[in-house]
Amino acid sequence: MKTVKAEIIGIGTELLLGQIANTNAQWISSQLAAQGIHVYFHGVVGDNFSRCVETFEAAQRRSDLVIVTGGLGPTEDDMTRDAAQKIFSQKLIEDPESARRVEHFYLKNNRPMSPNNRKQALVFENAKVLQNEEGMAPGMMVEHENVLWVFLPGVPSEMKYLMKEHVLPYFQDYFQLQTEIVSEMLRFIGIGESQLEHELQDLISSQTNPTIAPLASEGEVGLRLTSKGDTEEEARSMIRSLKNVILSKMGDYYYGSDDITIQQEVLTLSKEKQLTIAAAESLTGGRFIDGLITLPGASSVCEGSVVTYTPDMKEKMLGIPGALIKEYGTVSEACAKAMAMNIKQLVKSDIGISFTGVAGPDSSEGKEPGTVYIGIQIKNEPVEVYHFHFNGTRETVRNRSVKKGYELLFHRLKKDLSSKKSGQ
Question: Family, per the entry (predicted)?
């Protein structure tokens, strides 16, 4: 199979203005990667005819496959067809089935149809028309001078329907996609991207098949492993072998694969150890416990939680001594320790975890924004308090605090579980 150079172009000024995110390109890229098609370029063009033409001309010169999303509607600024016509020199004709669908939509909804709505039924005379069961404007595929062009609506639900039902199956035969592609995302927490890459440098520098692609997100790191084989099992076998090598080096930081989240893993470990969790949250405002409660089966682990934002509520709800607050402040190791202990006793849970700090943007109690204390008590063990300073906006500090809480609890539970198993 030859290497297919693919390009994805989004049409719409709203994308350039940041009014909506170009999630279409991200989703399409992931689908093409799973079929072994390499995306070389992402582009976004506003509703400007000359710039659309220039972008299409460049794509025609450099790519084997061009997927265009958006600009197929009925209004004047929907100019994808007109710009592409400058490339193809093909007539635009009305597709009878698409025209019928447009008319039926307005009839069914008892709305008058303006003449420009028929524009949505226009297709190139040599196009393969893709009927849109999710909307009105059809998709189409056009082959021009050995380049396959795919035109899709910009509405994500319509685009995904056409890709799954028509486009991706067509690619299998058109590009003779016989190689099986398998991917797995390994998720790590408690180690930075640069450190993880350093520890695995020998594997990353010598990668061929499977490949290793690091991907950092807030508070954690992923490694996407992708392999190609003549059969799916051959590809999966290569993934398993490489994964075992990676985990033999970095297994202490690994918490799961693919769509699993750190919240799910903390819930799973808590269930396995038959432990319940209660949280006392200040700067995080309930986000930690909400991350657990949104998961199925959380009721067996989540005993309860309190959000005590002010010093007065910390006294009234959690019983934090006023003298302690006066001497150390609420943003302190002493307060985080008392919060973790008291919520555990109040709810009668096995684990108490607390969050207190300064999210910003201003300082508080003489502490700079980003100052965070997290306390954890498991059963009758001494309370451990962890002190951090997170950079970023108020939202970033709060999110990092929650993610760090899950990280700390995960490693504690995993360590205790490993110790218990090894002692059996």
Answer: Belongs to the CinA family.
